[in-house]
Amino acid sequence: MAIQRVAIAGSSGSIGTQTIDVVLAEPHNYQVTALAVGSSADLVIEQAQQLRPEVVVVTNEAHRARVAAALPGIQVTGTLTDVVEVADVVINGVVGFAGLSVTLETLRAGRTLGLANKESLIAAGPIVQPLRSTPGAQLVPVDSEHCAIHQCLRSTSFGNQEVARLVLTASGGPFRGRSAESLAEVTVNEALAHPTWKMGPKITIDSSTLMNKGLEVIEAHELFGIAFDNIDVVVHPQSVVHSMVEFTDGSTIAQLSMPDMRLPIGYALGYPHRIATPFGRIDWSSLSRLDFEAPDRDTFACLNLAYAAGRAGGTAPAALSAANEVVVEAFLAGRIMWSQIAQYVDAVMQEFVVTTPTTVEDILEADALGRRLAEEVLSK
Ligand code: MG
Question: Residue 214: what pLDDT?
């Protein structure tokens, strides 16, 4: 195999730094050729001095000159999509809506996209989908559940014809099993204490509300083309079964591994091969049980909000995702209580009028409107 050139969009974040771990574990197979950050100047300078990429992108102009001065001989730019040209595989670990441009450009250029940026498919599914058929383009999910489903689906040669349903597992987050009343006054730190996964703050809060799982249901629908009625969520606190596919004959294939994002990242880097480095192995002698239970859809109402937005289609998922970002920021800033997250997002979706997007601008508009409505309901 020729050495794979890897671009990391969002290299300062949780996905980005773990991608570097995977690359450094197999330097004979992978080489980082581009790094992109928003404003994490010190970290990207350190990363670039170690990895010597061709391109470093710093989107925040205020930090760019300092990065350029520290990295003579490396091209330093301000355009996120500049990472695509020098790469065979682009890992899109940009947080939030800003990651869309990287997704579009990577597919347009016919490269492999390791997609960790959920918003790309959730908000802009109708725009992203046609680009997946660009010659050479390949979309490999870097999300543990979708990576699991992607693997399970390799057990059929007949595509969706033989798929009965997708079952996404959810750890249940830090508040699993708790009643709505007992959750009324939880603090930001309690919500940030995820029991099994180490992730960034926004996604950790989404995990605590099950919005993350709801967004993943939409993502699964977009990625695999399975109807919402045939996508289920089951709570599985050990986070060892990462998701399952049930086939028409009643057989279920599940993917199991330790909860470590370096596995899905390595899967995307290596696909269709498998990397040689295991990041954790299951110890079957200490793994004594695997539990499964139905999610509590009343206490964790964000799950239903996401299903509703997914079924509504069009611009609804974009508005949901945008409104949720604003509302979660308000929670992290101490402006609202945890239990109000679902209420505020619901209030936005009640007011939002769904349309059919045909351009990126339509998505941007829905995103902006979702944010504006969220600010409005928050300030009431
Ligand atoms: Mg996930």
Answer: 97
User: Is the residue at 224 inside a domain?
Assistant: no
Taking 3-state DSSP, the helix, strand and coil percentages for the chain, each rounded to the nearest 5, stand at 50, 15, 35
**pTM flag (> 0.90):** yes
Residue 148 Cα to ligand 1 midpoint, Å, equals 10
Q: How far is the CA of 141 from the centre of ligand 1 (A)?
A: 10
Distance 76 CA to ligand 1 centre (A): 32
- Domain CATH for 135: 3.40.50.720
Please indicate, yes or no, if residue 124 is contained in any of the structural domains: yes
Which of 358, 336, 355 has the alpha carbon at shortest distance from 347? 336
Average pLDDT, the chain: 95
What pLDDT digit, counting tens, does each position of 190-210 carry?
A: 888 877 777 778 888 999 999
Contact 224, 149 (CB under 8 A): yes
Domain that holds residue 31: 4-141
Domain count for the chain: 1
Q: How close is the Cα of 143 to the center of ligand 1, in Å?
A: 5
Query: Is 31 a domain residue?
Result: yes
Identity of residue 83:
V
Q: Is residue 246 part of a domain?
A: no
CA of 64 to the centre of ligand 1 (A): 32
Structure token pair of residue 356:
């059919």
Distance 144 CA to ligand 1 centre (A): 5
**CA 71 to centroid of ligand 1, rounded, Å:** 35
